[in-house]
Amino acid sequence: MANHIFALVAIMLMAGVFGGLLNYYMQAQVDSDNTSMPRSLVGGLAASFLVPLILFLVSSDLVVESQGNPSGMLIFAGFCLIAAWASRFAMTTVTKRIMQESQHVRERTDELLTEIRLLQRELEPLLEMETESDEGNAPVVLAPEDELDVTTANVLTALGNGRYIFRSLKGLAGETDLDEHTLNKTLGIIVARDLGGKILSKKGTRWYITQKGRQHLAASS
C-alpha cells in the first residue's frame, strides 16, 4: 500500500510539473510579458494534487482500484495531467472575472459618488433656508455699492418669492419678461455676488437664492 501511495505521489508530481511547463510555454507564445514559470509550475502541481479529492467527491474508486493495475495508473496519470494543464484556464478565467467585477464595482462607486454630490448640492439651499443663522433677525443695511439695478433686483425677487426653490431659465424668463440672453447675464451677476447659486440637476440647470440673497431682499424691502 505504501508503495502504491508513493507511486501516486510520483505520478502527481510529474504530471503537475509537465502540465505546468506545458502551460508556461503555451502562454509564453501569446503573452510573454505576463508569463511566469514558477506560477505555472505551482498551479500545475496544485491542480494535480487535487485530483484524488475530486475523484473522492465524485465517488470514484480509481485511486484504490489502480493498485496493481497498470491501466488504472495510466488513467490516473491522465487525470492529473489534464488537471495540471487546465489549471491555467481556470486561473485565467477567475482572474478575468475578478478584474471585471472590480471594474464594475469601481464604475458603480463613481456613479454613486456623483449622485451623492448632486444630491448634496441640491440639499444645500434647503438646509440653508431651514437653518437659523447666528445673526438672527438683525436688520441688514446695504451699502451703496451693494445696491442692485432694477433688472437684477427683479430676477433676485423672482428667485426668492417664487413657488419653487430651484428655478428653471424658462420659468424665470416667463416671470420676469426677460429674454434668455439678458436673463443668463443677470443670473451670472447674481451668482458672482453670492446672492444666488446654480446646480446641474437631473432635470437640467437650475438656479436658487442663497441666504445672503434673502438678506439682501429683506434689506431692500
Automatic annotation (TrEMBL):
Residues covered by the YEATS-Like-Associating Three TM domain: 4-109
Name this protein carries in UniProt: YEATS-Like-Associating Three TM domain-containing protein
Taxonomic superkingdom: Bacteria
Record Pfam families: YLATT (PF20303)
Keyword list, A-Z: Membrane, Transmembrane, Transmembrane helix
Chain segments annotated as transmembrane: 6-26, 38-59, 71-91
Taxonomic lineage: Bacteria, Pseudomonadati, Pseudomonadota, Gammaproteobacteria, Oceanospirillales
